[in-house]
Amino acid sequence: MDSYLDIARTVLRAHRRPMGARSILAAAYKANILPAHIYGKTQQKTLQARLSEDILHDREASIFYRTEPGQFALKEFLSDPDFPAKWKTEFPARRRTRDLKRPDSLAIRTTMAASLENTAISMSEFSERLEGSDALTVMHPKEMAKRGYSAIWTFSVVRRDDQVLAYRIGRYRDDRDTFANRRSIGFLGALAADDVSLFSTDSLGVQDCAVAVLSQDLDLSVATFEHPEEQVPKIECVTALADLQGHLDLVIVLLWDSPEWFEPTTRRLSLNDPGWLRPSMPPNDMDDFEPWSARIIKWLAAKDRPKFVHG
DNA sequence: CACCACGGCCTGATCCTTGC
DNA sequence: GCAAGGATCAGGCCGTGGTG
């Protein structure tokens, strides 16, 4: 009953302002409301972890939210007219990792994916092939290989004019550590059953997935994608690519034409070494790119070439 | 009552990122 | 570079609720 979270709630209620873990704890000590069973060397870290986990796991169900990094407040303050407006905007903590491997991931028969190896088809063609087939199902990624299924990824490329955004994949951001530390032009998302929303423009929720990934990885607001028609990620092609273990995955490539104001910054981004790359003029160090990006850069270059022949 | 499984909770370490 | 923030993990404790 007197867990860290209970104490945080009591203290925050009493102080009516956002507080850090350290000051919550200090206030609890002052008010002498810390039960004897709560002890430790770095209690502020423990409290911080409890609050972080609660917000992370329960999301909108959590009674807590962040006003800025390390500052926590109670959701009940949001409906309080006397609570200062400057503390009413929720600060979304940056995720350290994305949970790419959800239990309800979409899976496709590897035999079906294999028919797309070394080629690429349009989304409509892909939909046609799926029509009336039972190649699609839902399962945990761990099961896929042994049951003869492949994962389905969205691979979102950020484009500006004839350039695409390249960056170095950090070690932490992807559990497919084979791609870690390589350069990439794509932001990966694993398609899951619940990506399909009422407002989905395609039956698999591909665009919803891409929007979620881009807003998370590029630190954009989802609203960025809501209004102008031209700022929605467009499905480019569907193909199949092998990971470094040789297992085939289905890859849906999307292109997002970034708005004028968009400029990748490393400051609030966990993008390492970002830069714009012209696929028509591929760099010498293509080996530095992870294999999927290398393939897709070539594909984009071939597709764009006719535009530049006159030069 | 003794025993056990289970889940919730807590500690402390670790890893990565960011701000100063 | 260093301190602090954010996230995750293993390990352990403890109350609860069966079950024989």
From TrEMBL:
Keywords: Transcription
Chain ranges of the HTH HARE-type domain: 2-77
Biological process terms in GO annotation: regulation of DNA-templated transcription
InterPro entries: Asxl_HARE-HTH
Name of the molecule in the record: Winged helix-turn-helix domain-containing protein
